[in-house]
Amino acid sequence: MFQRRGIMLILSSPSGAGKTSISRAILRQDDNIQLSVSVTTRPKRANEVDGVDYHFKTVDEFKQMREAGLLLEWAEVHGNFYATPKAQIDELLDAGKDVLFDIDYQGALQLYEKCADDIIGIFVLPPSIAELKHRLERRADDNEEVIKRRLKTARQELREWNKYDYVIVNNDLDKSCTLVTEIINAARIQRSRQSNLSSFVKGLQDELESILK
Ligand SMILES: Nc1nc2c(ncn2[C@@H]2O[C@H](COP(=O)(O)OP(=O)(O)O)[C@@H](O)[C@H]2O)c(=O)[nH]1
Ligand SMILES: Nc1ncnc2c1ncn2[C@@H]1O[C@H](COP(=O)(O)OP(=O)(O)O)[C@@H](O)[C@H]1O
Q: Which residue ranges does the record assign to the Guanylate kinase-like domain (predicted)?
């Protein structure tokens, strides 16, 4: 009904807590939200599609993009480079499209600094560390050494929970998705995001006055 600027929805978590599963479900069910497809130098997983899940790049290609100023934020995570390409984000937000960022806390902090007013940040926690480890093992995308590295990185990631607007413990995936949907729906009707709300209220006031005459 009202024009509004899009939301930058950030989902972060220690690896294995479930942010990719939550993101995929949200993207499937909500046509107005689009994934910001990151650039990464990590190897592609079997179930991933280049250009859909990530833009897979060599380290040289990544560095060229960074030097050319094409990245909104970037970070090194688990020994690989990851970044958000600048292209399109502003046009999407101006057009009222919401954009979902599956990025780590280093990227989230950079975006909070640059675009604070547009951001809703959600940090996803696992129900326990034993379950986090099980999920990484069950996912079976990474070898033992990579899993260990991801768990080590979780030490630092867990310290960052209090930088986010919302925190979800991802026990039941469906319930977590419902919570994220509720957060998105609430954010969409925030007063500050609805740009022509004052003219709508003015219209109501004029109509009211004409009835009360
Ligand atoms: N800063 C930043 N982090 C990213 C970006 N894309 C992905 N990440 C993060 O990099 C980490 C590793 O991602 P990935 O290798 O897909 O493994 P996952 O943690 O199991 O999803 C996760 O914390 C992602 O959120 C990005 O563009 N920028
Ligand atoms: N609530 C949940 N309960 C059980 N398994 C889950 C849940 N959420 C995600 N998973 C599973 O855990 C693994 C890691 O989830 P994923 O979404 O890839 O995490 P992340 O993107 O945070 O690394 C996947 O195999 C996924 O199917």
A: 6-185
Ligand 2 binding pocket (C-beta < 6 A) is: 13, 15-21, 135, 138-139, 170-173
Annotate 61-107 with three-state secondary structure.
HHHHHHHCCCEEEEEEECCEEEEEECCCHHHHHHCCCEEEEECCHHH
pLDDT band for position 113 (cuts 50, 70, 90): very high
Could you report the predicted ipTM of this complex, rounded to two decimals?
Answer: 0.96
183 lines ligand 1 (CB under 6 A): no
Ligand 2 nearest-atom number relative to CA 173: 1
Instruction: Give whole-number Cα distances, 147 to 21, 59, 140, 176, in Å.
Output: 18, 22, 9, 24
Q: Give the position, in ligand 2's atom list, of the atom nearest the Cα of 24.
A: 17
Report pLDDT for 43. Answer: 94
Check if the beta carbon of residue 132 is closer than 8 Å to that of residue 17.
yes
Question: Which residue bears the tokens 């093992």?
Answer: 137
Q: What is the pTM of this model?
A: 0.94
For the segment 170-183, the average pLDDT, to the nearest whole number, is 98
What domains sit in the chain, N to C, each tagged with a CATH number? 8-212 (3.40.50.300)
